[in-house]
């Protein structure tokens, strides 16, 4: 007879979540409530709650805390939500690619972008290009800045967008936007009441809710701290999406350093508070990258021209 622990292990390993359950988890993370997530998916709250419970049993994890005040993701739930977002993005890419093959479209532009750019800038850029060329099919891969250059080098994409502080020397690059990182905390965090700015050393010594190694945001922060003579402490929590980090910070998990693009609305709504840091340059350039020595033509050139023309 199989021991109970082994039976449970088998169930967890054999379980494969369905996409709608993953979407529910991501939406709970983004909206901060089960009811909001249920409404977005067109589910009743009891049906959404049952789906969430099934997901928890299948993964063998407690993903959410249920209280009279509502449903909030646990730290483990926020981590899984970040992974779920990546799975859903890749699934969307698969479906878009399959649809393109079915339609046998000739016009095609393949783009890869880091998370921050993909969430906040690239959709508008692509939308402008498609208004000029309605029949153009654009495939977007979302990954971290570390992986974008490899996709460009291999020919898997025509154009990449990165937020890394050190652009690859073997690729052609052009600045397409400016950004800066900001320190954010929950409104009830002690730093929110500080009158004096943080020092670089204080920030470095504090475990943060952070993106994974290889992300442009993480690399920019580590480089800025290094230039200020400090080293980043091991993270409190590593999360793979901006939405999950914002939720973790707002729930009081800890401070984070994020793109200003990602937190504008949360700061305006009072959900997050920014904290000033003294003696630390957190500005950065966001760049397009393409094969070195190659002149862009066709849709990639038109997309880059549309972006840089707007920036001027």
Structure description:
It is a single chain. The protein contains 13 helices and 13 strands. It is of the alpha/beta class and 312 residues long. It starts with a helix and ends with a helix. Strands 3, 4, 5, 6, 10, 11 and 13 form a seven-stranded mixed β-sheet that branches. A two-stranded antiparallel sheet has the order 1-2. The chain has a two-stranded parallel sheet with strand order 7-12. The protein has helices at 4-14, 19-31, 34-41, 45-59, 75-103, 115-120, 122-132, 148-154, 200-205, 216-227, 242-250, 260-268, 298-311; strands spanning 64-67, 70-73, 108-113, 137-142, 159-162, 171-185, 198-199, 209-210, 237-238, 256-259, 273-275, 277-278, 283-291. It folds into three domains: 4-78, Winged helix-like DNA-binding domain superfamily/Winged helix DNA-binding domain (Arc Repressor Mutant, subunit A, Orthogonal Bundle), CATH 1.10.10.10; 84-176 and 285-311, Periplasmic binding protein-like II (D-Maltodextrin-Binding Protein, domain 2); 178-284, D-Maltodextrin-Binding Protein, domain 2 (3-Layer(aba) Sandwich). Helix 2 crosses helix 5 (75-103), helix 3 (34-41) crosses helix 4 and helix 5 runs antiparallel to helix 11 (242-250). The chain is globular.
How would you concisely characterize the structure shown here?
With 312 residues, the chain is of the alpha/beta class. The chain has 3 domains: 75 residues, Winged helix-like DNA-binding domain superfamily/Winged helix DNA-binding domain (Arc Repressor Mutant, subunit A); 120 residues, D-Maltodextrin-Binding Protein, domain 2, CATH 3.40.190.10; 107 residues, D-Maltodextrin-Binding Protein, domain 2, CATH 3.40.190.
